[in-house]
Specification:
By secondary structure, the chain is α+β, with helices and mostly antiparallel strands. The protein has four domains: 143 residues, Beta Polymerase, domain 2 (2-Layer Sandwich), CATH 3.30.460; 87 residues, Hydrophobic Seed Protein, CATH 1.10.110.30; 86 residues, no CATH class; 48 residues, no CATH class. The protein is 52% helix and 10% strand. A six-stranded mixed β-sheet has the order 3-4-5-2-1-8. A two-stranded antiparallel ribbon has the order 6-7. The chain has a two-stranded parallel ribbon with strand order 9-10. α7 packs parallel to α9 and α13 packs parallel to α17.
Amino acid sequence: MTTLDAMPSPIRPILSKIEELAGGFGSSAYLVGGVVRDRILGRPVLDLDLAIDGDAIAIARAAAAEVGAELRVHEEFGTAVLRLPSGRRIDLATTRSEHYETVAALPTVEPATLDVDLRRRDFTVNSMAQPLGAAEADRLIDPSEGLADLRSGLLRVHHERSFLDDPTRIVRGVRFEGRLALTLEPETERLAHAACAAGAVGRLSADRLRTEFELLFVEDLDLEAAWRRLGDLGVVEGAGLGDAATGARLLGRVERSLEGWLDRHGGDPPPRRVEALLAAALLALPPVERPAAADRLGASIGRLERIEVSGVALERPNLSEHEAADILSGFSPAELAVLEGSGGPEVGRRVKSFVSSQRDFELTINGAMLLEHGFAAGPAIGAALRATRAARLDGLITASEEFAFAIARLGGENRDR
């Protein structure tokens, strides 16, 4: 069996074509990183990373033309992305070395050997490679003993400056801990603490920091535990996101609200998970600290104040159902999920009620029907309809009583004569 034979059948012809094209350029192509790790673990193969010991961009351009894939190129890094018609993604990168001028800076890259390329990666378990089309599917290139670490359940960096060079690797490590049941080995954990203590996270650009948190928020893991772990390592404080324990509790509650939304309402419409969880991370902060944190995440605090004020309003004693619906109208599904998760039991009940029966509520009557009945056009028509809607939402009348209620509100003096 070859390496290609072990790949999912829909992508074998495409990988075979890339292998053929690489050979035509005098190069070799290798599966690297997560795909090799996940194949060893018996996990599904999703997106693919390929290392090319030659001109990856030229090979990617040729492959895109051959298989009809969408192509995106990053010349400065010698990388290209093929987006296949099926939606699957294949990343191709020229084997390279990386040099970091300052802490948390983007690297300067230069072409290098596969061995050098593998040793510049984040963790040893992601530093294994397999040649495409190798005679044996289990042929493994493993210069850093990543297989041994994988079997021991450990995440190990290659050198002591790894997290200073790229602090996003700390967030990535926590994702791998949650997803793959691996653990930062003791020295690697010490280096993560040291990098955070040195302010490395605070030197990341907003785009890079937000991207890593977005990737965390879409992972299938215990988000509350992951956020606490990031707090223990110093990432949450380094990102200017306040007390990790407070944030973890709120993120956990909002995550459960999102899950409940999907259970109750399916995907009609689905809340935007990342938007909701970013808002929750910001809501965990005192209001005075939120603008700076939003800048750090490249996020907008937009409607956070309205969410908070609305939560207080929904706790008001004797608040009617129609008043609650008026408060909640205009919120997006993501904002409603945040409000449900961040508020108390009464707020949660109000949001559930609104989403299940009030958000899409419509009267059985309209203004045209009242005009046809002889009432004059004007603001009184709108006022009568609003009063009728309030009475329906408050359970004071039934659908069959709407028309009579609206007519009574208008009064006979408003009829056209």
